[in-house]
Amino acid sequence: MRALFGRVLLLFVGLVRWPLRAWVRPRVTPTDLKELALDDQQRICYVLAGTGLSDWLALEMAVAAHGLPRPHPVRHRLPADDRAVVLALPEAAGRGRAVWQRMIQQGMDDPASGIQIVPVSIFWGQNPVKETSLFRILFADTERPGRLRKLLIILAQGRNTLLHFGQPLDYGAFAGRDVAPEVAVRKLSRVLRVHFRRQRAATLGPTLSHRGQVINSVLADPEVRAVIERTARAENVSVAAIRARARSCADEIAADYSNIAIGFMLRVLSWLWHRIYDGVEVAHLQRLRDTAHDASLVYLPSHRSHMDYLLVSYILYQEGFALPQIAAGINLDFWPVGGLLRRCGAFYLRRSFRGDKLYTAVFRSYVDVLIGRGQPMKFYPEGGRSRTGRLLPPKTGMLAMVAGGLLHHPDRPVALVPVYIGYDRVMEVNSYFEELSGTRPKKGESVRGLLRSSRKVLSRKYGRAHIAFGEPLRLDQWADRHRPGWRRELPAVPGPSRPDWLAGFVDDVAETVMVRINAAASLNAAGLVSLILLGSPQKAVAEHELIHGVEALLALARACPYSPDVRLPSADGAALLAEAEPLVRLQRHPHAWGDVLTLAERDAVLLTYTRNNVMHLFALPSLLANFFAHAETCSRAGVLRDAEALYPLLASELFLRWPADGVASALEAALDGMLTVGLLTEDEHSGDLRRPAVGTREFAALIGLARIMRETLERYGMTAVLLANSLDSGHIERGAFERQCQLMAERMAILTGRNSPEFFDLRLFRNHLQTLKRDGLLTGNGGSLRIDPRMRTLAEHALQLLGPDIRQTILHLTSQPTAERGAQEPASS
């Protein structure tokens, strides 16, 4: 009888399998199942959250497509070497618990049997759904639907099916000899229930409210109501009129999810990435998955291209994460793009709302509502796109609102996720150059501009995009470490006031986020080639020398890695050059002694953007190499001492990962790495360091390494010398001094033949002064700053790294009286 029942069951499964295979298109996350690190020598037991036959068949399709062991065609079997088994979590407490207990008993009797328990979450549809929508009632996936509803769900969502394979559980933790099988089953089922619940939240996110409900929640916020009443009294108008204005602000801000719009955009993006990119490389997803199980995520990406808006959301969706709501500038809210982005989760903010207390209160409340609901978010800490390739100083307004949400919802864990985004070639780099050089003002977004740029974009290839999720920062845990007892300081009733410590707390968090973005950088072929080519005086290098230079930098990056999260290419120098050549637009000049590779003047300037994406990875070795650019030998102690004095300026500009009081060990490691790869040698007796002999490959590599930070050190030298020369007066007027530094850099660029608008970027000098102020070398508030006498020593340290020609130019320019320099000022750029 049992055999007959088995044959009937197999026949039924076969009848159902074929139409399901024809209709269902399951996707799998992780997209690279190697992340699971499954052991080929151990058996596999898949565990599903439900008992449905359709789930079992979807799993069978997925494992067959990805080369994993297929499950037994019938249930209630133990896993074998060539066949896996599928168990359903509800059976652990029902009729199927005997199989669970037998599996546990097998492990107790034979500890070497080795069974990997792999939880598999199946989602029939991944789009977010609204609380009371008809779509949710009929077609949205639920945990235990009836048979008719399950059929409707499969018909509606079969082509949008996602299977998430969790990390295999440690079987030995549940199959100990001192635990009864039934107890072990209960313990295992509890762990799996928690896993499935958290995975569901991480993939689908919170249930969405209708847009009108969110706006009503914002207007009902006590802080918003208080601001409405104060504004009405101040303007002597009715409360209803101000409330209508507040509703208009909320309507301007709020996102409006649409499953149709999301589906349309995903199809467009899938086509777009394949059209313009050769692939998208993604790193550190498993760490992100672990974090998503425990906290609401706020993504903080670097911002280098308009593509950033689309890329992160596309990757998150493909990898099975809940879609975030995205903070977008109001300049993007133009027809038809604005409405489409709003329906895909964008909420809009004005570029500045300083002084507008009503808008500020409404926007802050909107962010607070998202945090309270556990809604993932994404915004750019830099505020706007970087025009130079470097990270910009963070703007802390949005981050302060998220931190304020922590005060209102201290029990709602929120994790900030730094995201590094890089491209082999940024499509907007031409317009960035024109904006920096002043030949074209920044233009607003429009349909006409979109159509004009899209024609150019779609006609070219831009290499690969690189995205890496950096080390997350849990806000509550960070506050526990850096502000112990903060929970006891919370008011009984949340109000508009913020504690005094919050501003400093937000600044520290913002700095840490930027550091972690850079710590997750990707070193690509275009970046390596740009570091070598831009370090050659004439932007021309023999092919074999370029290949050796690339390999030398790669060897150094492996010998003293910048951070554990940095990704390095595995190809050799020749392959990397072949990959980069069309992207950086190298010009090849054949020669009997070997081809020479050059760059056109404009392409060399544009390539500085690519170099700036990755130059921080070699900041410490390059700083150290500059001590040997003009000296054959140096004492190890002296190099380390002087480099440590200059480090704070580099760290501030490039968001380097070591604190100033802890960089000594990192400098030691960088020196050891340079010794390991042969860029330096050490005298056995004196301990002095010596550079390679002139004319050798190693010497050329050392000088190329030094040139990576050369322009940066020249700017430091100019700033430090100008400040040292002002010691007689004892103080400077900040704004005038920043402008003086910029003008001097412009003049120096002309005298030295540079065509690099970023060399005299005013923001860089502004940042220098801020760093010097933070380190106590400048003091004072407002526009007037006093100069510490230690500035003269810093100027000497900076100048000794520069060549005699550059040193002479700086000293000559700074020796001119201020009035004479003012008379020679070129026209403002």
TrEMBL record:
Q: Which UniProt keywords apply?
A: Acyltransferase, Cell membrane, Lipid biosynthesis, Lipid metabolism, Membrane, Phospholipid biosynthesis, Phospholipid metabolism, Transferase
Q: Which CDD domains match?
A: LPLAT_DHAPAT-like
| Key word Membrane present | yes
Q: In the Enzyme Commission scheme, what number(s) does this protein have?
A: 2.3.1.15
Primary localization: membrane
The Phospholipid/glycerol acyltransferase domain sits at: 297-424
Q: Which reaction does it catalyse?
A: sn-glycerol 3-phosphate + an acyl-CoA = a 1-acyl-sn-glycero-3-phosphate + CoA
Give the UniProt subcellular location, in the record's own words. Answer: Cell membrane
GO MF annotation terms = glycerol-3-phosphate O-acyltransferase activity
Q: What is the membrane topology noted in the UniProt record heading this document?
A: Peripheral membrane protein
What sort of enzyme, by top EC class, is this?
transferase
**Record pathway:** Phospholipid metabolism; CDP-diacylglycerol biosynthesis; CDP-diacylglycerol from sn-glycerol 3-phosphate: step 1/3; Lipid metabolism
Cross-referenced NCBIfam families, in alphabetical order? Answer: plsB, PRK04974.1
Give the protein name, as stated in the record.
Glycerol-3-phosphate acyltransferase
Name the gene that codes for it: plsB
